[in-house]
Specification:
The chain has 9 helices and 8 strands. It is of the alpha+beta class. The protein has a 6-stranded mixed sheet with strand order 7-6-1-3-2-8. A hairpin with a 2-residue loop joins strand 4 and strand 5. The longest helix has 20 residues.
Length: about 240
């Protein structure tokens, strides 16, 4: 069996499982993670001041990139959010290879934002609060493997220091029931994913995986960060047209 066929079967099996879960009575469903429930957490105790006249970039990994991308696309101040891969080499930055879990890559999202409207610290607050569960090691929800790990790929030393300090702050405050396992991984390039992965949540709102795993994240963003929530997502397809 080829790797591509194996991956197609795996994706289909995952959809069948999720569909079966959705068919259960509501009382039988339990929310498996803090990310799906959403959790209010304190903002970073130290954050950079707003700056004018430039854009900034954050690269974050928190499980399947469909949902993480969707969350940041609904965040005011974000000008683009692209699904892709980080942590490995350019030659292996392809979905069929990354799914093997042997490339060093994590499914990640490159968030371009306006630091005059939203800070890096606020992005991290949303990341830890609603985009994923930072206490799950090498998995998120139904997805298992190092390619689904929680990780931050800082653009510079300032971002790395900010992320490290915030993780320490949250762990010390025992905000989560378990310790945060998010890795800070500097020095890695980001590689955009294939076009069919971009804007996936918006384009496939009724897909069972999206309904069960990712749409709750958007609702949690709206509930916990009403001042930052934007109803109309900023899409990769629209950003390409603008450029």
């Amino acid at each position: 069996m080829t790797l591509k066929c194996f991956n197609d079967i795996a994706r289909l099996s995952r959809q069948i499982i999720i569909a079966a879960v959705l068919a259960l009575p509501a009382a039988a469903l339990t929310l498996p993670s803090a990310a799906q429930e959403g959790i209010a957490i304190p903002a970073p105790s130290a954050d950079e001041p707003a700056t004018q006249g430039k854009t900034a970039v954050a690269v974050l990994a928190g499980g399947c990139f469909w949902g993480v991308q969707g969350v940041f696309q609904h965040l005011d101040g974000v000008t683009n959010a692209v699904s892709g891969y980080a942590g490995g080499e350019a030659a292996t930055a392809h979905y069929e290879i990354v799914t093997s879990g042997t490339t060093g890559h994590a499914e990640a999202v490159k968030v371009t934002y306006d630091p005059a409207k939203i800070s890096y610290g606020k992005l991290l607050q949303v990341f830890f609060s609603v985009a994923h569960d930072p206490t799950q090691l090498n998995r998120q929800g139904p997805d298992v493997g190092t390619q689904y790990r929680t990780a931050i790929f800082p653009a510079d030393e300032a971002q790395a220091a900010a992320a490290k300090a915030y993780i320490a702050q949250l762990n010390q405050a025992r905000v989560f029931e378990a310790a945060i396992v998010t890795k800070i991984e500097p020095g890695h390039a980001f590689y955009p994913a294939e076009d069919y992965h971009q804007d996936y949540l918006t384009l496939n709102p009724t897909q069972p995986y999206i309904v069960y795993n990712d749409l709750p994240k958007i609702e949690n963003l709206k509930r916990l960060f009403p001042d930052l929530y934007r109803a109309d997502p900023v899409l990769v397809s629209e950003a390409k047209l603008a450029n």
